[in-house]
């Protein structure tokens, strides 16, 4: 599991932590020694309740023309959450600083649920800035974010993308795809990797199925009904910790404030210069140890 594996490893250092208190968004930019990569991760949704969020998603219409993509329409809310909050500038700043210090590292962008939707927009943005071959995106339980024209544009700009889905997870089924109107509705980009169980009795194996390049492979998660929240909250056996509390819980420790600047709305962008020591795998107390 990419995100958690990285965080738990030594030699991973967060250099930018972005907290949008108004919109309850959180993301970080870090440098992973073992991967030789810049890692950007977005937190999943933590709105009033996941049920409400999912219900809203069911009705969501394509409502925004993605700039630079002919006929490409996207989900306005997900696009805005990345592009028009403190998130985008924080991410670009962190990536810029990491590249200044370490040179040309590749960039991995990841997120779960709504965080996956933001990760996709971020990966697209970074691929347009730094080049397609330098950016890889891996999302988990991500909803659809745009129409077929957008999906095809996305897949040319960010070909190194894996969209991991799990069993009956309902979020990848939303907003709905209507197969009789494939050009008009929401449409996933490739490449899906569907995790599902096969087996009988005591012998159950989790299989990873690499799906076709259509984005809407009928033999992957679309071959089952999307009716499970618990499948949404577990990926590769890792609990995604998407709690259902009604307030926005910000994950940070008080000493982090010394790295930060707070804007007039209470949003934070915490930055620090990476200690070059991580390239020697030297352990130092820091954000990654909290
Ligand atoms: C995305 O954000 C940038 C600033 O970070 C802004 O210049 C641009 O207009 C935004 N794009 C859209 C379509 O809102
Ligand atoms: C995929 O599903 C279709 C029906 O939707 C079926 O006809 C076809 O054989 C399946 N292909 C594979 C490779 O499983």
TrEMBL record:
Pfam families on file: Lipase_3
Keyword list, A-Z: Hydrolase
Transmembrane domains' residue ranges: none
SUPFAM superfamilies named in the record: alpha/beta-Hydrolases
InterPro entries for this protein: AB_hydrolase_fold, Fungal_lipase-type, Sec_MonoDiacylglyc_Lipase
Superkingdom per UniProt: Eukaryota
Domain Fungal lipase-type: 39-177
GO molecular function, one term: hydrolase activity
GO biological process: lipid metabolic process
Protein name as catalogued: Fungal lipase-type domain-containing protein
Organism for this UniProt entry: Mikania micrantha (bitter vine)
